[in-house]
């Protein structure tokens, strides 16, 4: 079975085509600057030359049509016909309280995703564009949606509620949802497999540290807390996002600087974090380069970033009353030796024994960076959100096929027999 995974943003669309039985990626790519005459299309078919085109792509339906043309292209394609695509899986950022797991798309599901536009105004409308674009280009092909929030729906009320008047929750669904769920779910499963222990028996702190960053406390395979909240702004300090701050700063800064709601929101989401403190970059590679060259602001930005991450790890160990393993993943978590080393060397009170040599080796691989016998294990697990989306879509299609097969069987004879 071939499954196309799509991550649609407002002006971009990323895709990966999986052959599920072998677990192979047949092709991947992205369309950027959708809506412009100079949209950029990058197509990477496995084992063939990469295609890079700049052309007019004004909306998502055209973007998907171009992607499908490339997937069956005589020279750059990987399929004989688009009919070889059995299903499409979409990433959807916000599933609110309605979606606790991935689902197949139908009219009800689409209506519910639209109802959630308010909670994720930048993301969910773009995902709907992706779903409609697939419908227009591939009518009848089943589609599934996989939500960033779904994995965290297991959080208990004491973790997901804010201590504000309950009317805000009842009337407007103001609560913590958490994000990066697909990634936290995947790395927790892989961590258990790596350790050779049942996930049901493990207490894990997973750290998804990329452009956006969040930690999760995972007990017995279920998320019991996570650092992002109602929106992906809460929690850790990030590349351009502030993470946690005193909410009173918002009206205070608005008054002092004469800022509108849009401006303060843009400040906290796009002009804060590493970028604001270093004055150099939101990219951890550039921060580390600058601090190694002696830049004081870069050093302060790194120190704040690491400190806030380590405090969350400590909080989640307390939340679970223990921890078996800490897992690092995503762009910074998988690649920044310095961040992992600094965090781990300051967690000795927990019983973390850090292995400096292991930390330097094996980039791109699942690995242990704590010493053999360390009371708390520390792992680096490369995340793979696209694979989880493909796998969930595959599972949903298979269970639907089983239901269809069962519905074809005439059970009436069996029933008659049992009555007699
Ligand atoms: P992600 O959102 O998971 O794609 O992560 C992207 C971020 O990972 C980039 O903005 C960088 O800050 C970070 N990153 C990527 N490679 C490295 C590296 N070698 N060292 C430190 N940070 C890195």
UniProtKB/TrEMBL annotation:
Substrate binds at residue 91. Its main location: cytoplasm. Its EC number is 2.7.2.1. Its cofactor is Mg(2+); Mn(2+). Gene3D superfamilies: 3.30.420.40. It catalyses: acetate + ATP = acetyl phosphate + ADP. SUPFAM superfamilies: Actin-like ATPase domain (SSF53067). Mg(2+). Can also accept Mn(2+). ATP binds at residues 14, 208-212, 283-285, 331-335. It is found in: Cytoplasm. The record marks 180, 241 as: Transition state stabilizer. Pfam families: Acetate_kinase. CDD domains: ASKHA_NBD_AcK_PK. The active site is at residue 148. Mg(2+) binds at residues 7, 385. InterPro entries: Ac/propionate_kinase, Aliphatic_acid_kin_short-chain, Aliphatic_acid_kinase_CS, ATPase_NBD. Pathway: Metabolic intermediate biosynthesis; acetyl-CoA biosynthesis; acetyl-CoA from acetate: step 1/2. GO terms for molecular function: kinase activity. Keywords: ATP-binding, Cytoplasm, Kinase, Magnesium, Metal-binding, Nucleotide-binding, Transferase. Belongs to the acetokinase family. Homodimer. NCBIfam families: ackA (TIGR00016). This is Acetate kinase. The lineage of its organism: Bacteria, Bacillati, Bacillota, Bacilli, Bacillales. The gene is ackA.
